[in-house]
Amino acid sequence: MNRIVGLIGLWLALTLTGCAKPQPYDYTAFRQSNPKSILVLPPINESVDINASHSLLSQVAFPLAESGYYVFPVAVVEETFLQNGMTTPQDINSVSIDKLYKIFSADAVLYLTIKEYGTKYLVITSDTRVTADAKLVDLKNGQLLWSGSATASSSEQQSNSGGGVIGLLAAAIVDQIANTIMERGHNIAGITSVRLLSASTPRGMLHGPRSPLYGKEHL
Amino acid sequence: MLPEKKNIFLLIFIMLLGGCAGNKNIYYWENYQSNIYQYYQKEKTSPEEQIASLKESVEKSRAQDKSVPPGLHAQMGLLYVNTGNGVEALREFETEKELFPESAQFMDYLLSKNKGNKK
Q1: pLDDT at residue number A10
Q2: How far apart are CA A19 and CA A12, in angstroms?
Q3: Residue A119: predicted pLDDT
Q4: Is residue A217 left, alpha or beta, with left meaning phi > 0 and alpha meaning psi from -120 to 50?
Q5: Is A211's CB within 8 Å of B6's CB?
Q6: B71:A58 CB<8 A
Q7: Could you give the percent of chain A with pLDDT greater than 90?
Q8: Is residue B90's pLDDT more than 50?
């Protein structure tokens, strides 16, 4: 069973990277910190779509929780900041780690930046793309534990730009389900989130203690 | 494309995400994430509708013998706070803390803050 999981994991890893051999990532700090719980702050939005931050934020729990972490309830967290006078992602992202630790007692905080979120109209088609960066920081000492970046696009089906099988399926789903541009962006953001925050991806997050794969990564 | 075909694509996609044939997810997700998204799009669904949808998820997760995802009960607590149902809100925050002790400090903060709203 484990071998099957491993093989499929390997195959997934290969398809996700388009068969390029990934550079090894230094997980020393990550392993030492060994976080169990992750506080995700509202993403800083560098795109022009005002919907982007909430669209991505509402979809981070799935990959992180399935990777084995306790994920703080994102909307409840944001509401807590709002009630304390911090109304924008910029405000919230500049709160000191000491203060964050005092309120939430999380092991780590995840900072997200949305680089792209939106649709470009090309001659005969349109391309919806969501790109985001992530930084995981230890909430006790401020040390950077991991950072990564991911992108997903509606035109992966046509260009097959490294999306592999998941990309193909994703494109098909998005074409079928999304009736509006807004929905389409949201669906693509969900794929970006899974690529960015799932453990067992090359240079990705490690598994957390609530996952059966915790501590079983061979790096 | 026929709706059935669409479902097959979705199923395959979800199976891929699970990393193995069959649903190997740790938690019973269903509509938790779309529920959060709806919370942000305030005008589209009412808090009452969102509570009902999350309640349904809790029931279905029991039937499948899986836990609901981290945060779901706290989200329900928030919705109860927003609809003025303090007692239910406290119960949900307690449940979140029970299921996920990692949340204890934050849940205690929310519990102490909302105790005054008890009705």
Answers
A1: 62
A2: 10
A3: 84
A4: beta
A5: no
A6: no
A7: 66
A8: yes
Share of chain B above pLDDT 70, in %: 77
Average pLDDT value over all residues in chain B: 85
User: Least CA distance to A13: which residue of chain B?
Assistant: B19
pTM of the model: 0.81
User: What is the three-class DSSP state of B21?
Assistant: coil
B8 close to A (CB below 8 A): no
Average pLDDT over residues B33-42: 93
Give the separation between CA A15 and CA A8, rounded to whole angstroms.
10
Nearest by Cα to B39 from B74, B70, B79, B72: B79
Helix (H, G, I), strand (E, B) or coil at B24: coil
Q: Is the ipTM of this complex over 0.85?
A: no
Q: Which residues of B touch A105 (CB under 8 A)?
A: 104-106
3-state SS, one letter per residue, for chain A: CHHHHHHHHHHHHHHHHCCCCCCCCCCHHHHHHCCCEEEECCCEECCCCCCHHHHHHCCCHHHHHHCCCEECCHHHHHHHHHHCCCCCHHHHHCCCHHHHHHHHCCCEEEEEEEEEEEEEECCCCEEEEEEEEEEEEECCCCCEEEEEEEEEECCHHHHCCCCHHHHHHHHHHHHHHCCCHHHHHHHHHHHHHHHHHCECCCCCECCCCCCCCCCCCCC
Distance from CA of B26 to the nearest CA of A (A): 6
The type of residue at A51 is N
Of B16, B25, B37, the CB nearest to A186: B37
B10 touches chain A (CB under 8 A): yes
Q: Say how far apart CA B114 and CA B84 lie, in whole Å.
A: 10
What does each C-alpha distance from A31 to A203, A214, A217 come to in angstroms?
14, 11, 11
Contact A36 B33 (CB under 8 A): no
